[in-house]
Amino acid sequence: MMRYFEDFAEGQVYDLGEVRVSEAEIVEFARKYDPQSFHVDPAAAQRSIFGGLIASGWHTGSMYMGLLVRGLLQGSASLGSPGVDEMRWLKPVRGGDLLRGRVTITSVKPSSKHAGRGTVGTLGELFNEQGERVFFVRSSGIFARRPR
Amino acid sequence: MMRYFEDFAEGQVYDLGEVRVSEAEIVEFARKYDPQSFHVDPAAAQRSIFGGLIASGWHTGSMYMGLLVRGLLQGSASLGSPGVDEMRWLKPVRGGDLLRGRVTITSVKPSSKHAGRGTVGTLGELFNEQGERVFFVRSSGIFARRPR
After folding, report:
1. How far is CA A79 from CA A10, A123, B16, in A?
2. CB–CB of A88 and B73 under 8 A?
3. Which domain holds residue B42?
4. Torsion over CA: A7, A12, A17, A20 (sign)
């Protein structure tokens, strides 16, 4: 069953399941994309204000995206996204953390330019096992309308 | 020479150098973090509105971060970032593209809470070889002040 633009409505909440964060992956991601010492060097991270290795915020955002795609977008007529309106890294994310994802539909707007498309606004969130919200992102996605 | 909060001023522009995008890396990143068909499946991407494989926006953001860290943050007293205020994926990014990064300092604010820190606002941008702006991100970073 394919999800189209018409299937989204303001206020819908989707549970996106969980992802376990691994310290090896934190370091592997950060070596490529964010090699600040508190993301790649355990000893330097220990001495930093974070008191140990933490995930790059871009890694955290990417893990959220993985949950969103596997939990919602893969069964949908997603046509990509124009970008992000706000993103916050609220708490450190560390190796061993189990993160649960959730997305709330915040708006639905048919496109005025493309008759066959619409924009869906989203609030995405990640929570750790202590129930703390560690991350949120306000974004939007373009979806195809259901073919007649 | 270490860069501290005091070394940043509104209007400064830093060239961050270049990164070559590889199609193999586009697919590798997307398989983990954004397995939508137009990021991982060349044939499906060909038939999509993008006409071929494009990089995940999270991959593009991460490549920008790589340039920012290697070009500026590694020689600085960076203490992380609270998040992003706006991010836009303006044009498709494809395998073979050469992206040039630039960051402009948009604000500097001493912290009212922590005497030894301040917040630096940034506008980060990526341009392709055709000179098209493909990506921008408005964000901020926390930096330590210069020790007396």
Report:
1. 19, 18, 31
2. no
3. 5-144
4. positive
**Residue contact A79–B33, C-beta within 8 A:** no
| Crossing angle of helices A23-33 and B57-71, rounded to 10° | 70
- Which tens digits make up the pLDDT trace of A70-121? 999 998 999 999 999 999 999 999 999 999 999 999 999 999 999 999 999 9
All residues of chain A having their beta carbon less than 8 Å from the beta carbon of residue B81 are 57, 89
Helical spans, DSSP H, in B18-144: 23-33, 37-40, 42-47, 57-71
The answer to whether B78 contacts chain A (CB < 8 Å) is: yes
Between β-strands A83-89 and A98-110, what pairing exists: parallel, antiparallel or unpaired? unpaired
- Give chain A's domain count: 1
pLDDT in tens, A112-144: 999 999 999 999 999 999 999 999 999 999 999
CATH number reported for the structural domain that contains residue B133 in this entry: 3.10.129.10
Predicted TM-score (pTM) of the model is: 0.97
